[in-house]
Amino acid sequence: MTTRSLQGLLLTRLLQLVAVVLIVGTLSFALMYFLPGDPALRIAAGRYGPDMMDNALSDMVRVELGLDRPLLVRFASWMGDLLRFDLGHSLVSGAPVVDEIALQLGYTLWLAAIAFVLALIIGPTIGAIAGLFPGSVFDRVTLVLSIAFRAVPPFVLAVLFMVIFGVTLRWFPTAGFGGWQNLVLPSVTLALGLAAMSSRVMRDAMAQVSQAPYFTHARYKGLSDPTVVRRHGLRNASLPVVTYLGLQMVYLVEGVVVVESIFAFPGIGHALVHAVIARDVPMVQGTALAMGGLFVLLNSLIDLACLRLDPRLRRMPS
Amino acid sequence: MRASLAQILAAAGFLTASAVGPFVPSAIAASNDDVLDVTSPNEIAGLDPAKSGYIFSRTQVVETLFTINRDRKLVPMLASESRTENDGLIWHFTLRDDVVFHDGTPMTPQIVADDLQRAFERPGVLHQAPITKIAATDNGVVVTLSSPFAMLPAFLSHYSTVILAPSSFDENGEVTSIIGTGAYKVDTVTPPLHVELSAFDQWWNGHAHIEKINYLAIGRGETRTMMVQSGDADLAISLLPVSVTQLKNNPDVNVTIATVPRTRMLKLNLAKPFFDEVTERKALSMAINREALSAVVMRNRDLAATKLFPPSIPGWSTDEIAPLEYNPDAARKLLADAGWKPGADGVLENDGKRFEVTLRTYASRPDLPLLATALQSQLRDVGIAVNISVGSYTEIPAGHADGTLDLALLTRSFSQVPDPAATVIADYGPGGADWGSMNWSNTEAFDLVADLKSTADPIARVAIQEKLAAILQNDLPTIPVVWSELAVASTAKLENVYVDPYEQNYHLADMRWAP
Q: How distant is the Cα of A22 from the closest Cα of chain B, in angstroms?
């Protein structure tokens, strides 16, 4: 890998990260402002619940948080904090946003990482086998399954798994986060959605590679089938899959929001939903920034993986 | 080069593991069958008592000076006795002398006075009381009032007035940990969902039977039901009506139900021409088939709210008050008497004005949108067109403040402070309230509300309450629709489960595993 291409890639990603921070921060501020309803009432509701919340409490919240200040003043104040890497305090719990996100991001990363690894094991493996035998029964069955798992929304899949594996078979806990067992159902829910697509990308890539002249050549020169697949098949076929994995992060982020809420998992997706409902602007900004930053980071890793896998990319002028 | 992909995956794995590593010990705890797993919809919004004090008071981590007992009577808890002087303007509360906080320090009058002062200055119920001074004495606290306020002990049982150790606060007075006096102490808190508790050996009131509690907030009612079915939860608080039927047939689960002092009701803007006449409000009430609503939506015919207060509230529900009836023919006649005649499409009109209103409600109580839809149909039968707006519950106080509200379907608890008078005084006094009357004026009722604030004699109070209840029944500033019940599911091996209708306490310390 040339130093120049690596530097170029990292610089581009760094600039993207700065842009993401500015755009996500500004957009979440603007969206929270323009949403209908009184923010002070929403924050009071988030803090004190429906039985205690009223206009008197929301007035106290408005004064306490300075929500009656002009919009531009509030925006400038927030931007100034952000430039000093200060994400502020949650308007609901009062805890520093950084602390809350650090805790929630930890849980989310656990969930996402396990789902991602599971998806990597399930999707490309099934796809590679199906691609080596295009048109076979295995290929057709996995096609139907992948369509089914991608078409079913994560929340339906989640409830189905809870009923089957939690309530009926009692193999895994239905919800919560007390042990490793609690990670199984949410991560499998996420992984199956991810694997459904990556398996088909891998299948098509492998089918294409297996028809390529270099693949045939490798066989003609006397290599065994497993060696041909390992040396010439997997590496070439994995390139589009690795690229596609980057795109799948979007699905993962979307899935985490839904799955965490259903399985009562205290991750960043669950926090984001509650922060939006309660108009907890610093938490919305913090979680959106964390998610955006993570997205850029993971895509950078994917790019690095592609650079390692494909020598042609390294030879291209940056 | 062969290992390039593996290297990158390993690097990604390392990065992820480094990021999450510090959280593993707290996240992945060993499960234990002796632990009582409790689940409820209530999330921890923050450690401040005004925000989530009810979670820690219901789980018996923190305690208040007073509480409500199983006979629905207000009794001392951390206080041992109370007395008034100077015509009820000075309250003396003597404190128990054997109370120790979870950090081992004793509870002193000064700590209690400081906690109450803090509660008074911050959001909560206490600032509604006419308090001028809170001071510590040798064996208790003295609260001085600017006017008599008979409900002060009831207010001192509210979760925003819990007594915390000084070590619970940081230098700015913010709560950073929950160190109370109750049967259980906090081991870990993972906001917003999870709390782990263990029995406190030095509890002044004995020792809890079950050593460990695992509290998990689960927002979705269906998930709570599944957790009980699968054995993941031993105690699930607040079940959906549809789940109750399902769980009652499960031999491994006990379902306990209590009627709670909470009413689903219609809030009316009496400044609107649709509801300014009492005949119109009576017609609206007569158009509501409460029995059908309670049977179909609440799955319990007995929850038809024929009065504002359910019979379970002592001193507020008397047989002398005639129940509200369903009579759509009489409703049409009353509306006709008030000048409302059917238009071309059957919707009533009066001086060219259509009887078309918007009903605001919210989905955080899942039955409310269903009730709203059923009400829409029932009211259409008498010629009233209702548009339903399901949004945040904050739209109701917002509509109250700016006067844009027509009609709202809401649920109101009369046990926030375990004396319903506190809610009634707030909701039906002059000027109305966000969750109560709107643009309603009734001098006799307002006088009774004022009397209720200051009258301490229990017999005199009941007389006032009954008169006030009769006025609310006749004048209908709000229209009751259905009452509520609290359904709790517990595993069959759990004994001594008690459902507190005032939702003040889960009574976990009394529960025990069946031998």
A: 24
Strand, helix or coil for residue A214:
helix
Query: pLDDT digit string (tens) for B53-82?
Result: 999 999 999 999 999 998 888 999 999 999
Closest chain A residue to B13, measured at CA: A113
Label residue B316 exposed, middle or buried (CB < 10 Å: 0-12, 13-18, 19+). buried
Six-digit token string for B415: 């046990």
Q: Give B379's pLDDT tier (boundaries 50, 70, 90).
A: very high
**Which candidate in A43, A52, A62 is best for mutational testing of the B interface (most B CBs within 10 A)?**
A52
Tell me which chain A residue has its CA closest to the CA of residue B45.
Answer: A93
pTM of the full predicted structure? 0.83
Q: List, in order, residues 6 or more apart from A280 with CB less than 8 Å away.
A: A43, A46, A90, A91, A92, A274
The C-alpha of B4 sits at a distance from chain A's nearest C-alpha, in angstroms, of 6
Gap from B154 CA to chain A (nearest CA, Å)? 16
Mean confidence (pLDDT) of chain A: 83
CA distances from B429 to B432, B440, B456 (A): 6, 9, 19
As a whole-number percent, the residues of chain B with pLDDT over 70 amount to 94
What is the length of chain B?
515
Cβ within 8 Å of B, A 17-76 = 37-38, 41-42, 44-55, 57-58, 60
Distance from CA of B307 to the nearest CA of A (A): 20
User: What is the average pLDDT across B343-347?
Assistant: 92
- Position B124, amino acid: G
Could you tell me the sign of the dihedral formed by the alpha carbons of A254, A256, A261, A267, in that order?
Answer: negative
Q: Do B191 and A51 touch (CB under 8 A)?
A: no
Rounded Cα–Cα distance for residues A264 and A262 (Å) = 6
Q: B191, A109: Cβ pair inside 8 Å?
A: no
User: Residue with structure tokens 């459902």?
Assistant: B499
Kindly indicate the confidence band of residue B6, based on its pLDDT and cuts at 50, 70 and 90. Answer: very low
